[in-house]
From TrEMBL:
GO MF assignments: DNA binding; DNA-directed RNA polymerase activity; protein dimerization activity
InterPro entries: DNA-dir_RNA_pol_30-40kDasu_CS, DNA-dir_RNA_pol_insert, DNA-dir_RNA_pol_RpoA/D/Rpb3, RBP11-like, RNAP_Rpo3/Rpb3/RPAC1, RNApol_insert_sf, Rpo3/RPB3_RNA_Pol_subunit
Keyword Nucleus (UniProt): yes
Organism domain of life: Eukaryota
Gene Ontology process terms (BP): transcription by RNA polymerase II
Record-annotated DNA-directed RNA polymerase RpoA/D/Rpb3-type domain positions: 105-382
Protein name stated in the entry: DNA-directed RNA polymerase RpoA/D/Rpb3-type domain-containing protein
Length: 402
């Protein structure tokens, strides 16, 4: 017989271990091992140390009760931890709800996931979804006011329709042209020939670029319902006066925003944490109507409103809240801290995606998810770098900082 007291404790990492102090429990060494093993508690004292402790017989009964209490509380704690783990684990099934969808704009909710996933999605949309952009320019004639490099740079920034980009090859991986980057699998050729023959200044625009592939053309931003105006003539490259000429050949290639911003399909991708706003109704009722109005007006955005009938303050648009803390500061200044509680939900996000027009906003999101999945597969295989390289080519090298 020996006595001990098993105290469940927690380390920083939330792992339990048993501390043995002078105490209560009556068990022989083999049972002790069995119990600690069952509770998954490593033992911090040897059975020999424990045997040296004395034990008043009267406390045996209490000891047993306490042990069972302890056992059940440890189990409860374990269960709670398992529940929490379930709530936060990667096995969660995120949900997406689309709120607004246009060709170049998408707004959607992403729920039941954590900020790391939301941010990964945002970053992949900006920097890793491929598009096609002009990458090589051979100028034949340029007598315009802009120098060759300037024009090449402007050409690179013109968004090209890039539905083909996901299936196209990166020029550096293309074996059909040995990395030359000028074959049909990894490039699209453009030609531009413009000369100004009149006294009127001539605008050279993206519409003057002729593509060798009808599926890859400069994005058309014009509004079909509008008449001929400056907006529907394409993206201006340079302006020519009488006698000036521009003649060039350009090669467009597949690329990602991480290599150069011209390949980014995203104009803006943002997400916000969904705010959860709770008004302390009791405290709010202690305010006069004038004070309520003053407090509601302290918010720079229209989040709260006063019901004209009941004169109660209510939340009209929680998402208009910009985490500016103005209403909290105002409540404090009025001597009513705790008037409102605002929590940023850590598992719900509202995304806004604007595309450059290279691919549709909806396709941008889908491609980003696809790439994110490929990256995760590459991580899984990253230990075996040869296999990763075989399967993912430059993506594997990319993961290792290459
Ligand atoms: Zn090629």
């Amino acid at each position: 017989m020996l006595l001990l007291c098993v105290l469940p404790s927690r380390t920083n990492h939330g792992r339990r271990f048993a501390t043995v102090t002078t105490g209560y429990l009556v068990i022989d060494p083999p049972s002790l091992h069995a119990i600690t093993a069952a509770l998954q508690l490593p033992l911090l004292a040897t059975p020999q140390q424990l045997c040296a402790l004395s034990f008043p017989p009267l406390k045996r009964v209490c000891a047993l009760f306490w042990f069972f209490f302890l056992h059940s509380s440890v189990r409860k704690e374990q269960r709670e931890e398992e529940d929490t783990m379930e709530g936060l684990s990667y096995a969660r099934m995120p949900r997406v709800k689309i709120r607004e969808l246009k060709d170049d704009y998408a707004k959607f909710e992403l729920r039941d996931t954590d900020p790391s996933i939301a941010n990964a999605l945002r970053r992949v949309m900006i920097a890793e979804v491929p598009t096609i952009a002009i990458d090589l320019v051979e100028i034949e004639v340029n007598s315009s006011v802009l120098n060759d490099e300037f024009i090449a740079h402007r050409l690179g920034l013109i968004p090209l329709t890039s539905e083909r980009a996901m299936s196209m090859r990166f020029s550096r991986d293309c074996d059909a042209c040995d990395g030359d980057g000028q074959c049909e699998f990894c490039s699209v050729e453009f030609h531009l020939r413009v000369k100004c023959m009149t006294d009127q200044t001539l605008d050279v625009t993206s519409k003057d670029l002729y593509s060798s592939d009808p599926s890859v053309i400069p994005v058309d931003f014009s509004d079909p319902s509008a008449t001929e105006s400056s907006e529907n003539r394409g993206v201006i490259i340079v302006k020519l006066r009488r006698g000036q000429e521009l003649r060039l050949r350009a090669i467009a290639r597949k690329g990602i925003g991480k290599d150069h911003a011209k390949w980014s399909p995203a104009a803006t991708v943002t997400f916000m944490y969904e705010p959860e706003i709770h008004i302390n109704e009791d405290l709010m009722e202690t305010l006069t109507l004038e004070e309520k109005r003053e407090w509601v007006d302290s918010s720079p955005t229209r989040v709260f409103e006063i019901d004209p009938v009941t004169q109660q303050v209510m939340v009209v648009d929680s998402e208009a809240y910009t985490y500016d803390d103005e209403v909290l500061k105002k409540a404090e200044a009025m001597g009513k801290p705790g008037l409102v509680e605002i929590i940023a939900r850590q598992d719900s996000f509202i995304f806004t995606v604007e595309s450059t027009g290279a691919i549709k906003a909806s396709q941008l999101v889908l491609n980003a998810i696809e790439i994110l999945k490929q990256k995760l597969d590459a991580v899984r295989l990253s230990e075996d770098t040869v296999e990763a390289d075989d399967q993912f080519g430059e993506l594997g090298a990319h993961m290792r900082g290459g």
